[in-house]
Amino acid sequence: MRVLVVHNRYVSRNPSGENVIVAEEVESLRNVGVDVVTYLRDSDEIDGMSRSSKAATVIRPVYSPTDVRAVRRIVRTEAIDVVHVHNLTPLISPAVVRTVQGLGVPVVQTVHNHRHVCVKGTFFRDGRDCHDCSGLRFPAPAVRHGCYRESRLQSVPMAVSLAVHHGTWRHLDRYLALTPQLREHLVSAGIPAERIVVRPNTVSDPGARQEPGSGFVFVGRLDEEKGVGLLLQAWERHPEHSLGVLTIVGDGPSHAATAAASRRRADIRVTGLLDRQGVQEAIADAAVLVVPSLVPDVFPRVVLEALALARPVLATKVGGLPGIIVPECGWLVDPDPTALAGSLAVAAREAAHKRAAARRHYLDRFSPEVVLQQLLDIYAACIEERRR
Prior knowledge:
Layout: E1 2-9, H1 17-31, E2 35-42, H2 51-56, H3 65-77, E3 82-85, H4 95-102, E4 107-111, E5 124-125, E6 128-129, H5 140-144, H6 152-164, E7 174-177, H7 180-188, E8 196-198, E9 216-219, H8 228-235, E10 246-249, H9 255-264, E11 268-272, H10 276-285, E12 288-291, H11 301-308, E13 313-316, E14 330-333, H12 337-366, H13 368-387
Parallel strand pairs: 1-2, 1-3, 3-4, 4-7, 7-8, 9-10, 9-12, 10-11, 12-13, 13-14
Antiparallel strand pairs: 5-6
Helix pairs in contact: 3-4, 8-12, 11-12, 12-13
């Protein structure tokens, strides 16, 4: 089997779990003998472009002739059996999907966000849920509010791309939805339900940690959307050290406020950004991972890191989180300071009793062996359907 993986990497200044997932998936496929060809573009390329080249990038989310020709050539010359796409903007463009299908080759996409409908991909704006563009053939509100990179100008080509490729995104052979919630979103966007498969992300198995750990850990971007402010409000409703130590890993716009909180209380520790090993150690040292998102996160990779390490997860009931965390291995709570404060106390009492179930949940549903076999079965089914 020969697979072409197509992905437009996100800018390096904003660390992307999706970039890591794509790279690890390619490696896993190659390790089991799949012949994988990659076509990767990098959003960091834009910074190094000439002024005229940068100006030309405004049409690329709609149609990029350079990338269309490149993908067509690879499919033809490399005898590709199936094409697996991830993110295609801002450089590659969804036009490659129609090109590949015109060659009679099946196309599957891992859907990592809500960008089939939402220019920003998050259904979140100005501190609240936003579905202003849902149901519109042209997402004018996204342009008006500058949803893409907080720029009206940069939002225009993204909005045009959504409108132009409204039909393109409805004709893939398979959509790999990371959670049941994302599957429901795709169905509501007009995607045929029979072409959607729920297939989660995975992380390599670090092995369960036998030590129980203590306190809580947050890992993520320090901003309003990820809920670090909500977490701090809930934490400060408890006496100092009554819940152990709260370790906060990450960086972002809310760094100053987070650092100020750590100066006020000795039970809040801020580490800044850590590499993957550092993140794993921080999770293993804690008893519970907290994911207090306000934005409807599709599938935070850090949740799998925690489950693999036998750490239960306390998360808000938003996005795909309810489809990942079951009662045996964690707690789900409304995104409200009072509710979260109460659940922090519950999680502190119950964490030790949910460790084994957290590890089993990872092994049964999210281990690399389970998830990779699902992908291979999807590829095989799509190839066979095309042949018939």
